[in-house]
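hi! just following up on the protien thing from before. the input was this:
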Amino acid sequence: MKGYITSKLLKKFVIAGIALLIIILGSTAVYWFIAGDSSLLDCLYMTVVTILTIGYSEIIDLSAHPFGRIFTMIIAFTGVGILTYVLSTITAFTVEGELKATFRRRKMEKKIERLKNHYIVCGVGQVGLHIINELYATGRDSAVVAQKEDHISRLEERFPEQVYVEGDPIDDTILKKAGIEKAKGLFAAMDDDNKNLIISLSARQINPNIKVVASCHNNMNAEKMKKAGADAVVSSSLIGGLRMASEMIRPTVVTFLDTMLRDTNKNLRIEETPLLDSFEGKQLKDLNLKQFKNTLLLAIRTKIGWIYSPNETHTIGKNTSLIIMTTPPERLAIEKYILKK
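and the predicted 3d structure came back as:
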C-alpha cells in the first residue's frame, strides 16, 4: 500500500498535463487556421489568455468568425477545468505527502510509547545499522535515534517497520521521546566519540538502571566513556584486529560463527538467560531444557565464575545465568517458561 496514493496522483497529474498541452497546441493551431494572417505567437497568446481567463481583448479579430468565438468559449470552459484539475493534483501531492509524514510520525510515537524493556540505538552509520539488524534478527524491540536525512532514508529502505525518532541524541528531550526511561539498554553508536560520551552520560543520568554500550573510535577515549556512564565500550579497530588474527589462526571457528550468524533458516545465536532467585537450590535437570529441540546449554555463569558444559545435577545458586545456543523463537519461549516456573 506504501506509495500507492502517490503513484495514483502522479498518474492523474501526467494525464491532466498531457490533456492541457494538447488543448494549448490544438487551440493555437485552430486560431492560426481561422486567422491565417496572425502569427503563431499571437495564436498561442490568444489560447493562453483564454484558458487563464485573464480577460484581455481579442488580439485576433473573431468578429467575422462566429465559429471562432464558439470555439473560444469551448476552450475557456475546457481549459479552465483541466488547469484547475492540474493545480488541485499538485496541491494533493503536497498535502498527501505532509499528511502521510504526519500520520507516520504519530504512529511511530504511539508505538514507542508502548515499548518497554526495549533497546535504543543512537546513530545509523555502519555500526548502527549492524546493531539494528541484529536486534531485528533476534526479535528484540528497539527504537532508533537518527539525525541526518540520508541516514533516515537508509533506515527506512532497509528496515521499513523500524520505529525511529528524528533528532540529535545528545538532546535529553530526544532520548526521552525514544523511551529511555523505560528502556533496557542503549547503544551509543555515533561516528563521533565526543557525542558517544555525552550520550552515555545523559543516558545514565536519566535512567540509572539502563545498560549503556558505547562505540569508541579512539582507544584513548574508552576510559572516559566508562567514567561518563558506559557499561561497556567497544572499539571497532580492536574488534577488527582480533577478527583478522582469528581468520589467520582459527579459520574454522570463524567460519562456524559466520555461518551461525548468517543462517537465516535456523538463525542460531548464543544468548544469555538469567535465572530467577526462585530457582536457587534446584538442579539444572529441573529446568527440562531438553524440551527445546533447537537449544544447547553451553555454560552457566555464577557469582564464582564460569562452569562450562555443566552437569544436569549441578545445583543452581543465586545470580545464575544460562549461556545457550538457540533460535530467537526458542529464546522467547525459554524466557516465558522460566518466568512461569
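Confidence is low (pLDDT under 50) at residues 1-5.
Residues 143 and 178 are 6 Å apart (CA to CA).
cheers
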